[in-house]
Amino acid sequence: MKDEKKENQMWDDREYPIRVYTKAELAMLYNPASCIMVALNTLSRWIRMNGPLMKELEAIGYNKFRHSFTPREVELIFKYIGEPGM
User: Fold this and answer.
1) Computed over its alpha carbons, how large is the radius of gyration of the chain?
2) Which long-range contacts (CB under 8 A, 24 or more apart) does 43-46 make?
3) Do the Cβ atoms of 26 and 36 come closer than 8 Å?
4) What confidence score (pLDDT) does residue 1 get?
């Protein structure tokens, strides 16, 4: 329980907290100078091309047709692609 609380505090200090993001919202954070469709396509391609990320996303039930990312999916995306702006 103590470790979980410490881990949650660590996430709170992030510029982009682990939470639900719409795919469009997260795509624009990664590609702010692009139009929305280009940003979405770019993020989607980054995810598809990253084998370890796709494997972990599939293991937790990722649905490419859903309009948002769950906090766990966001955590994995940040782990493998990095946080936006990095």
Assistant:
1) 13
2) 46/81
3) no
4) 47
